[in-house]
Amino acid sequence: MDMIRRFALLSVLALAACTPIDTGLGDTIRANQALHVIDPGPVVDDDAPILTSGVRAAAAAERYRKGEVKKPAAVSTTGTASGAGGPPK
């Protein structure tokens, strides 16, 4: 019985040795980089319908032609705290 267990163990080890470690066929660097991406770009459906108002788009094009483009509102992405570390104030 002990001989059968040894044979089974050796068989499993031999089969494990035949499995390729690099299943990406040399693309491990790119695969590792992809694993470390925190927030990948959104998946976009190219066939999705464009949801917009034709009236608003025409008005924006007319303002552009006349040079009356609306200035975008200022957007702040950070608080007033400066320096390194610590929670934002």
Distance between the termini: 70 Å
Q: Could you report the average pLDDT, rounded to the nearest whole number?
A: 76
Poorly predicted parts: none
SSE arrangement, N to C: HHH
Helical coverage, percent range: 40-55%
> Strand fraction band?
under 5%
Instruction: Give the strand tally.
Output: 0
The major pleated sheet works out as:
none
Describe this structure in words.
The protein has 89 residues and is mainly alpha-helical. The protein is built from three helices and no strands. Helix content is 43%, strand content 0%. The N and C termini lie far apart (70 Å).
Question: Helices and strands in order, then pairings?
Answer:
Blueprint: H1 2-18, H2 28-35, H3 54-66
Question: What labels describe this entry?
Answer:
89 residues; single chain; 43% helix; mainly alpha; 0% strand; 3 helices
Brief overview, please?
The protein has 89 residues and is an all-alpha fold.
